[in-house]
Amino acid sequence: MSRKVIVTAALTGGLHTKAANPNLPEQPNEIAEDAYKSFNEGAAIAHIHARDPEGKPSADSAVYKEIHRLIRERCDIILQDTTGGGPNLSVEQRIQAVLEAEPEMASLNMGTLVRTKAKGPYRNTVFRNTTDDIEAFASALLERNIKPEMEAYSHAMFREVENLIEKGLVKAPYVINIVLGMEHQGAEPANPKTLISMIEFAPLQSIFSVCAVGRAQVPLTTLGAILGGNIRVGMEDNIYYRKGELAKSNAQLVAKSVNIIRELGFEPASPAEARQMLGLALKQINL
């Protein structure tokens, strides 16, 4: 039996707008439709950022709930909301929306970053994720049985991963997403040497996935799959299908990577299979 690879579709993100790619989904119906199409192409997880009617990152739990409802009308893909939100949101806003919307999973950033290379008004602003913030987020998620996906942008962030494990604020299997190439937020370079080294830092009883920004998305996620991990692709991290050609949808990016992993002898995990692999609580999925 071939190994199952969990594919996450990172649909929108907190930085890109339709000015960068008009196919970027921003409103609930667009996000839900892209999630469904990505599910049909093999994605097991939908990573969700909400936007307001003007396309700015939103911390309105009602918007997240509406996105969840629209997705659930179509499929059983795992719902993973962001606690990163966007640069216009406070720490308190970023976590409150997730707690009220109650997804199955939530991303959880493992350290403070500085947007040194961001363009526009958010250049050199701080993306705050202190140890106290991380512990508070993890504790709140644990109380609500929401599985955190710990986002590691650098080797140093594994210390925060270890801290959460030592304090019992996360449950095994520990889910880690290695984020590479996001230079505007201080991530380490997207290259094989860095990826292999960071995988070695993953603690026992952990499951890792790989996401990489821009042109590095496909090469690094493919290498991650070869090395035993899962993959995250989508327009949050890369708005292009190939050089000079904007992606038509998140589903197009998912389909490309699913074709590659199948050529490698693997198969994409279904949402049900991914839930079992990740140790998610069984929740009623109404379709």
Shape: globular
Query: What class, by secondary structure content?
Result: alpha/beta
Quote the beta fraction: 15-25%
Radius of gyration: 17 Å
Pattern of helices and strands: EEHEHEHEEEHEHEHEHEEEHEH
Short description:
With 287 residues, the chain is α/β, with parallel strands linked by helices. The chain has a single domain, classed as Alpha-Beta Barrel (TIM Barrel), CATH 3.20.20.70.
Keywords:
globular, two-stranded parallel ribbon, TIM Barrel, alpha/beta, 287 residues
Give a verbal description of the structure.
The chain has 287 residues and is of the alpha/beta class. The chain has one domain: Alpha-Beta Barrel (TIM Barrel), CATH 3.20.20. Helices cover 35% and strands 19% of the residues. The protein has helices at 28-41, 61-72, 91-101, 131-143, 158-166, 192-201, 217-226, 250-263, 271-278, and strands at residues 4-5, 7-10, 45-48, 78-81, 105-109, 113-114, 126-127, 147-152, 174-180, 206-212, 230-233, 240-242, 245-246, 267-268. The strands form 4 sheets. The chain has an 8-stranded parallel β-barrel, surrounded by 7 helices. Strands 1-14 form a two-stranded parallel ribbon. Strands 6-7 form a two-stranded antiparallel ribbon. Helix 1 (28-41) crosses helix 2, helix 1 packs parallel to helix 8 and helix 2 (61-72) packs parallel to helix 3. The model has no long low-confidence stretch (mean pLDDT 92).
